Amino acid sequence: MQPQEGRLELDRCIAQLDKVVRLILGEPVARRPSPAEGTAEDNLDPAVRRHAAALMRVNHCGEVCAQALYQGQAAASSSGSIRKALDMAAGEEIDHLAWSAERVRELRGRLSVLNPFWYAGSFALGYAAGRLGDEWNLGFLAETERQVEEHLQGHLDRLGHRDSRTRALIEGMQREEAEHRRTAERLGARQLPAVARHAMRLAARVMTTLSYRI
Ligand SMILES: [Fe+2]
Ligand SMILES: [Fe+2]
Fold first, then answer.
1. 60-70 residues labelled b (16+ CB within 10 A) or e (exposed)
2. Dihedral angle, C-alpha 109, 148, 211, 197, nearest 10 °
3. How far is the CA of 40 from the centre of ligand 2 (A)?
4. Contact indicator for 156, 167 with CB cutoff of 8 Å
5. By C-alpha distance, which of 178, 55, 50, 71 is closest to 122?
6. What is the DSSP track for 86-125?
7. Which residues contact 63 (CB under 8 A, 6 or more apart)?
8. What was the pLDDT predicted at 211?
9. Which of 40, 42, 90, 168 yields a CA-CA distance of 20 to 30 A from 52?
10. Which ligand does the CA of 86 lie closest to?
11. What's the pTM value of the predicted model, to 2 decimals?
């Protein structure tokens, strides 16, 4: 490697690290208004408020993971069109991240202290998926989005008709996750083997159970 190339590589690493620190420790700014905007705050009793805050902490953690997965996948992919699709989805996921953090604050909750740990694990997973080639990379993306859609539906079911503002936000994010999945399918995603799908569900269950509490 030429000294100049080494310098460029170092610059890219520093830029990536800066992005990660801002993402996890900073306050990402949404480019679009939250889907909850315009929905009035219900009169929540303290138990419902705490429950909704914990569910939104889980969702925020999921969005940290989504950022890491997409960045890992984009870093490992050699295809321009796939990197473009990943970048576009990652941009929308930054809005999800910001909206989730904002809703946690509104509900007087706190974000998960485990976020840096989930970020690192998800980035490694995304990078590994990206190295498997485009069809598997897209397959991993489509399966992730499918599981996120189901997971958000689970949160809507658990909330019931309480907390309209949180519901409006989750429904808005769920619509976009479905669109991310359809984009991956259109680009040629392969269905992952059942064992990989189950392993992903198991990992997600560990993440959601822990981040509901800490
Ligand atoms: Fe998302
Ligand atoms: Fe998504």
1. bbbbbbbbbbb
2. 180
3. 26
4. yes
5. 71
6. HHHHHHHHHHHHHHHHHHHHHTT----TTHHHHHHHHHHH
7. 93, 96, 97, 100
8. 93
9. 90
10. 2
11. 0.87
Residue 115 CA to ligand 2 centre (angstroms):
18
Single-letter amino acid code for the residue at 123: F
Looking at residues 161-179, what average pLDDT do you find?
96
User: If you measure from the C-alpha of residue 137 to the centroid of ligand 2, how many angstroms do you get, rounded to a whole number?
Assistant: 14
Report the separation in Å between the CA atom of 145 and the middle of ligand 1, taken as the mean of its atom positions.
8
- Which residue from 102, 97, 86, 214 is spatially nearest to 144, judged by alpha carbons? 86
CB atoms within 10 A of CB 97: 25
Rounded to whole angstroms, the Cα distance separating 143 from 61 reads: 18
User: Which protein residues have a CB closer than 5 Å to ligand 2 (ion)?
Assistant: 145, 177, 180
The span from the CA of 153 to the CA of 156, in Å, is 5
Cα 32 to middle of ligand 2, angstroms: 15
CA distance 28 to 8: 26
Amino acid at residue number 196: A
The yes-or-no verdict on residue 6 having pLDDT over 80 is: no
Between 46-76 and 164-186, two packed helices, what is the crossing angle to 10 degrees?
A: 20
Q: What is the pLDDT of residues 100-150, one digit of tens each?
A: 999 999 999 999 999 999 999 999 999 999 899 889 999 999 999 999 999
